[in-house]
Amino acid sequence: MLLRRESAVTGIAHSGDRNARRVELVCPAGTLAALKAAVDAGADCVYMGLRNETNARNFAGLNFDERAAAEGLRYAHSRGAQVFLALNTYAQPAAFTRWTDALDLAARLRFDAVILADPGLMRYAAQRHPSLRLHLSVQGSATTYEAINFYVQRFNVRRAVLPRVLSLAQVESVIAHAQCEIEVFGFGSLCVMVEGRCALSSYATGEGPNTVGVCSPAKHVRWEETPAGRDVRLNGVLIDRFGAGENAGYPTLCKGRYVVGDSTYYAIEEPTSLNTLDILPELLRIGVAAIKIEGRQRSPAYVAQVTRVWRAALDACVAAPDEFVATAAWQRELAAVAEGRQTTLGAYHRPWQ
Amino acid sequence: MRLTLGPLLYHWPRAQLDAFYAAIASAAVDIVYVGEVVCARRSEYRLADWLDTAQRLTDAGKEVVVCAQALMESEADLRTLRRIAGDGRFMVEANDMGAVHVLAGHAPFVAGPHLNIYNAPTLALIASLGACRWVPPVELSRDSLAAILADIPAGVATEVFAWGRLPLAFSARCFTARHYNLQKDDCGWRCIDHPDGLPVATREALPFLVLNGIQTQSYRVHSLVESLPQLFELAVDALRVSPQSSGTCEILATIRAAIDGRCSPRDAADALAPHRLAAPCNGYFHDRPGMALVDAMTR
Asked: Does B166 touch chain A (CB under 8 A)?
């Protein structure tokens, strides 16, 4: 707990004793209440988006206007936590200034960093706001150090968030060669596709993550009770059918059941959450600078619970990495709030490699 | 307007690859993209084979571009990228920013459809690094394309994905291996059994997607042939046809005829129908869901 309120920009993450290495816990803030919950539960950093398509969780009832953002910044800064602004969709030609306005706002309100994916926007930020700290979003799809170093050398990006597709050995290699800090996802809903490289939602609905900041948007979802079961359609396409007693989560296109050959199954991915608690010592050993919790669309209670568990786990792991064990109690708490009530190591486990 | 053949996205047996590119050497196409974009594990053609193919096509009078892989994960992937970039004989299509980083300032390159160029400032940036042609993301609408082209840097050509199953997503996970309950690193190259992808249908038997290893594509065939007048109006420089296991040369010849005005776009669409693997779609171009079919003639 002692180390976690130090400045993120001092470079401590890459120097000094291994056990003293600072690893930031980066938590989601979909609302002011969630932001406060994250900060109170021990987040080092929170990330938020504005109320428009400039961020990848452009959902009704979520996100911040300027006033709420300013209040969130005050709340977090007064308690030693940092605030990042996610501007991680691709700026659309018809409304380019909506994205640049958001960048100007981030500089004006003194966010600690902006999380960007769009290279054109990154150039704007680097030119207009050279002191604004830039992070490369997971939506930037940078999976190698060559891609990451492009952003570092062109725009002085200080941190890259890795897509959830690499094995531990690959992450280690990226960290060894990347010229900036590396942030990885620790927990939350899992994109099975490379973030920033998925047009499935826009194929079915016309709206997707890259352009509008949504995936399988609720306004296109229809639930129907039928003799065959409880059907869920996305813009008319039957993406799953649930039997009596089956637990139905939010219907995401890639996590539905389809027919391939003679089999009906989760052809792409089960409804599941990523959970890397079991390999936390390895993540620290290879030198990740920050661990990100997904879930700006989730409730303040979720944010508080997940942040509390990860704060405790991270502190325990930093204090004694060799003795670290992910406790059954932590795992129970995380599983209780996980999508589909199940978790996976994703690309960190072998069937993906 | 030039006609191009995009990279083969599927895994075909070596003999089929040989025959396909031998036919392409005399097909009605100006630019041919070769190389493995989807999966580094596929080895019917290794990089040396792709470079030999590129040379043969060049000798046959085609402009040839060698493609870099879209999703790069390992040091081996980067070594392949550097070999492609270092060969020097052929232009390279970059499909991620790592490739742009390696190519920038060294040689002109093609900015591929997976680079996420969604606006004019991004295109200006990529052009300043050496891109001489770009392929917009498949989900970009005509209106967005028009807005970008209003500010296009001098010397940059625009190539639009105009025919084929849409490459929609990449994953670390191989969905073909998953279908066969195989590990990705012991997959047995089962994707070779699905020369146009493995169809995915909804539970009411509506064909929806196809699985192609780590890539997911549309089941429907994206076709902009009937939008040719609008593509001319936008001053698009080239149209891309994506290879399929049968009829590719006929498709190229038909679209060439339509570009040259030797047949109407509607007649071309009718002539293409027997070669179309599935129902057509064109929604993205018209700012609709990608799977939608909009009557281009009434727009």
From this structure: yes
Q: Cβ separation of A206 and B290 shorter than 8 Å?
A: yes
CA distance A309 to chain B (A): 28
| B119·A150 Cβ contact <8 A | no
DSSP A149-199: HHHHHHH---EEEPPTT--HHHHHHHHHH-SSEEEEEEEEE--SEEEEEE-
In a domain, B200, yes or no: no
Q: Is B246 helix (H, G, I), strand (E, B) or coil?
A: coil
**Does B180 reside within a domain?**
no
Q: Cβ distance B85 to B72 under 8 Å?
A: no
Kindly compute the dihedral angle of the four CA atoms of residues A25, A28, A29, A33, in this order, to the nearest 10 degrees: -80
Q: Average pLDDT of A1-27? A: 51
- The arrangement of strands across the sheet holding A229-234 comes to A221-226, A229-234, A237-242
What is the topology classification, in CATH, of domain A4-190+272-348? Answer: TIM Barrel (3.20.20)
How far is residue A68's CA from residue A58's CA, in Å, rounded to a whole number?
16
Cβ of B101 and A94 within 8 Å?
no
Is residue B197 in a domain?
A: no
Is residue B43 a part of any domain in this protein?
A: yes
- Helices B14-24 and B248-259 pack at an angle, to 10 degrees, of 20
Query: Which residues of chain B neighbour A166 with C-beta distances below 8 Å?
Result: 73, 172
Q: Where are the alpha helices (DSSP H) in B108-247?
A: 120-128, 142-149, 175-179, 228-233
pLDDT one-digit tens code per residue, B110-166? 999 999 999 999 999 999 999 999 999 999 999 999 999 999 999 999 999 999 999
Q: Tell me the shortest Cα–Cα distance from A298 to chain B, in angstroms.
A: 25
pLDDT at A148: 98
**Burial bucket for residue A221 (CB in 10 Å: 0-12, 13-18, 19+):** middle
> B201 CB near a chain A CB, below 8 Å?
yes
CB contact under 8 Å between A197 and B71, yes or no, is: yes
Domain assignment of residue B16, given as a range:
2-165+221-274
Q: What is the CATH number of the domain that holds B107?
A: 3.20.20.70
Q: Tell me which chain A residue has its CA closest to the CA of residue B201.
A: A259
Percentage of chain B surpassing pLDDT 70? 99
Length of chain B (residues) = 299
3-state secondary structure of B119: coil
The dihedrals phi and psi of B115, each to the nearest 5 degrees, come to -85, -5
* Nearest chain B residue to A264, by CA: B203
Q: Do B119 and A91 touch (CB under 8 A)?
A: yes
Structure confidence at residue A189 as a pLDDT band (50, 70, 90): confident
SS3 of A200-263: HHHHHHCCCHHHHCCCCCHHHEEEEEECCEEEEEECCEEEEEECCCCCCCCCCHHHCCEEECCE
Q: Nearest by CB to A238, which of B98, B198, B203? A: B203
For residue A21, what pLDDT is reported?
A: 59
Contact A260 B290 (CB under 8 A): no
pTM above 0.90, yes or no: yes
Q: State how far residue B287 is from chain A, nearest Cα, in angstroms.
A: 7
Q: What integer pLDDT is reported at residue B101 of this predicted model?
A: 98
Contact B202 A92 (CB under 8 A): no
How many structural domains are present in chain B?
Answer: 1
Tens of pLDDT, residue by residue over B236-273, are 999 999 999 999 999 999 999 999 999 999 999 999 99
Query: Considering chain A, what is the average pLDDT of its residues?
Result: 91
